[in-house]
What we know:
By secondary structure, the chain is an all-alpha fold. It has helices spanning about 5-20, 30-40, 55-70, 80-90, 115-120, 170-190, 195-205, 215-230. The chain is elongated, with a radius of gyration of 20 Å.
Amino acid sequence: MNLDPKIVAFNAWRKRRALEAGLQSPEALLDEWKFKRILIADPKDIYDLENLRLLTAPLFAQYGEDLLRLAQGRPTTDELSPAARRRLLEDDGPSTPRVRGAGTIRHTSTRPSRTVVERAGVRRDDPVVKLHQGNVSSDRKVIVDFHPAEAHQEWKAKPFEFGCQTLSFKYWETEFLEAWGALLDDLVSGVVSPESEDEKAVLQIARRERKASKEWEMALTKLVLRRTYENS
Length: 232
């Protein structure tokens, strides 16, 4: 019987992960039926996995990215070469595109640094993460596209509880939520009335009435999804 190559790849991945976790059998990690359901749903990005209702919060946090790669027929992170893993983790490293027909990778110094979309390929609408524009030169990424009302500037850096695991958040998303999370929660709960356009968008994002297009909207969407998973 000829198995689907994706199922073969999944079984090999599951065996590796089960060994790493010290489990007695691969089935204890995730059964093949659930993965077939993921294949049938054909998720285009990691957030589509939410609609399947098949992954527990710990499984989603630990293996969501790997399962998405398997469903899309891409190699999982542990199958990449050390060099490829480094390129995936680099935020601003030079790109190393493969030239069609060539046996080696040709490096170029003229191509701009890759964006989040090119590196991870998780969401097609991921905006470019902007660098902090300040007096001091820095390559540390921060979210700068959120514009609250002037009257709500005092909410910045107020105490905020994530209410979920933060392992899946990028550091710039964590820093943004630590700075403005209290305001976002108060807007969603109705404690504060929205005034600026971005504050009005907070309610639409929280209610899943619109698709995230800005970097801060992506951070809020991830927060909403993580809380939903872990509290459902």
